[in-house]
Amino acid sequence: MPTSQLRSASVGIVVAGTILSVSALNAQEVPNEPAATEIGETPAGARDVLLEVFINDASMKMIGSFKQQPDGSLAATADELRQVGIKPSADASDDALVDLNDLADLSYRVDEEAQRLYVTTTNEGRAPRMIDVKQKQKNEVPEAQSSYGGVLNYSLFASSNTLFDDHVNVFQGVSGSFDARFFSPYGTLSQSFLAGYSNGELDGITRLNTTWSYSDPKSLMTYRMGDFTTGGLSWTRPVYFGGIQAQRNFSLRSDLVTEPLPAFEGTAAVPSTLEIYSQNVRTYSGDVPAGPFQVTNLPAFAGSGEARVVLRDSLGRETTQTLPFYSSNLLLREGLIDFSVEAGVPRRNFGIESDDYDDRIMGVATARYGLTDWLTLESHFEGGEDLLNGGIGAAFPLGPWGVASVAAAGSTSDRGSGALFNASLEVSNGDWSIYARMQRAFDNYDDIASVTAEPASTNSGDLPMFSAGVPRALDQVTLSVPAPLDLSSLNFSYTRLENADGEKSQIAGLSYSQTFKRATFYASAFTDLEDRDSFGIFAGVSIPLGDNVSANTGVESGPDGFNVVADISKSEQQENGSIGWRARTSEGKVSNREAAISYRTPFGRFEGGVQQYDSDFRATAQMDGAVAIAGGDVFATNRIDDAFAVVDVGTPEVEVQQQNRPVGKTNRSGRILVPNLNSYEPNTVSIDPKNLPVDADVPATKEVVVPADRSGVVVKFGVSDAPQAALVTIKDQNGTLLQAGLSGNLQGSSDEFVIGYDGQAYIRGLGARNAIDVTLDDGSKCHAEFSYKPQPGKQVVINDVKCL
């Protein structure tokens, strides 16, 4: 690596092979580095020299490490040459020694007195300056943490029978869904279940899932034991398993980008300032030296977009180039591997039966590998008793306009053998976009879902029966085209499905929307081309009325007739005390009217409503909330679907904020629970100190926490009502205020304090008599002593303390 890098100025470029020329400017001269000292001769007679590098008479603002041979020629490692802007031979490894005389189209001279190397070469002989935009944006993410504790989420729903029928009981019953989990630094154990109560007795409990999981952000791995969903690809069918799982989990690193990001190359005629705009948002600004450069890891949104590259010289002249790009999660960056491996028994009738597992042990393995930025390979294997299934696939970009994928698989089971083929296409250009997918299954193609599903022998009632087999044919097309008016969109969709039993359906849909200044008009229609009685049309207008209130009205038509629909609603917000409500009516062959109101409290959310369907009237009530245990306290709160924090301020009635949004005030114990934190992502929790006593000690007002998987963390701000602290003004022996920036220590304490403006220092941990030592600029120390007396409710100020 170069031993020193100087500050550079910037200008001009080549982008995507197009040269954008700018008048050459003279590079500003910079002070010479001190002459390099010779490290000494090597056994071969060469000596190490440090030289400031100039290419085509422009300083690279870098000093390179070279080996000078006895004949005066220079050599350096290939990596060192790249760093200073010289391109070595293509086959040279990073640590290989390259003689500059062996490089084509390159000449050089050494100014030994000035310790400079002057190189003359073409653009092809120069190594581009690498600009990693994502690297510049990266922040240090704190390590994920978890306390010990638990959470029980609950959702209770009660409804009545017909309200005005004297022959039935009004109360119908209560049903509830529950999700309990226990977390620790060793993982999270979760248990969810359903329960109901009616006719004076418990209806029973249906277990949903029991799972222990542990995630390791360093290895990007998540391990599960219990109930889980297997991994899969766009052309496979994941199933529910009871067993063990090891899975790559890129979401454990919020700063990690797995998709290939846009990159481009350019050449600056003179030092330049480079700015990059992605979707009209500036994502990079920095200096580039004269010569070629390469920008990598340009932040991009999913789908199609444009990047605008602007080069600006010292006179303010600009050169601009617009580059289209396409980003898709079907692609992996070069060298990345994503995989999931499972072993266990398939689970059936989830949500209906508590313990319905197949008795055959199955295994599943899925992998994706970024062979290059333009080719991602896929593979999938699953099998066990009576089944072997495997396939491979690939995804690749279609220039800056889209991405495509293809896959093929084969299987053998006790029913025979078969094959599957799948292909998909995503293309976007301007306001046009299309998604298309085609899948075909041949002969007796099977997977785990089809061989372990229980056969349905009868059709009970009017419920439709769905085939568990692999569909024989599946075609999907979604097309979005620009509409003739601004702020409007027109979308078409088509799906053709032939299931394993040969039943066919063809669903076609069309939708249109138009946004006006104060309203949005929308219309949609769909039909099953295989069933003329299956169709629907809906059109309406939505009008925002302000204060989170909106009104909608429209008409709908279907096999059951024609209806006029109208509703007005106020959306409920996340803040405590927020109220939401809605009223809706549908008038047609059968009237359907309903009204509901909801209210959010610090300990739960409540909703009540009434409904009239024809001549039948019913009432409903719902309560959602959670009980959390962490930090030695029990909290009643709203649902916690991910992580949370217990904020310990130490003082009651202090406002706490999450991501600068108020979430409430601390209780009598000086604590509050903050829900809705994101696991493995930085979450900012802060306090507003305006309600704190004037003499309170506030070590910090903001903390950044990264909770582990669905866990809770305790955040202590350490505010003290009796801090035993004072604002001390310190002078030297001549009576001059000590300068800002000096540091000192209170004897008997490990805490350090810093001198601020006007010689003032805030010193904690004081007693009746105190001694301090302050380190001066020359390294010497001065000593001072003073007395302290607390004054409750006031900031103690001690003036004129002399440090001798």
TrEMBL record:
The keyword Lipoprotein does not apply. Residues 727-789 form the PapC-like C-terminal domain. It comes from the Bacteria. Pfam families: PapC_C, Usher. Keywords: Signal. InterPro entries: Fimb_usher, FimD_plug_dom, PapC-like_C, PapC-like_C_sf. Residues 1-27 form the signal peptide. GO terms for cellular component: cell outer membrane. The keyword Signal applies. GO terms for biological process: pilus assembly. GO terms for molecular function: fimbrial usher porin activity. PANTHER family: OUTER MEMBRANE USHER PROTEIN, SLR0019 PROTEIN. This is Outer membrane usher protein. It comes from Rhizobium azibense. The lineage of its organism: Bacteria, Pseudomonadati, Pseudomonadota, Alphaproteobacteria, Hyphomicrobiales.
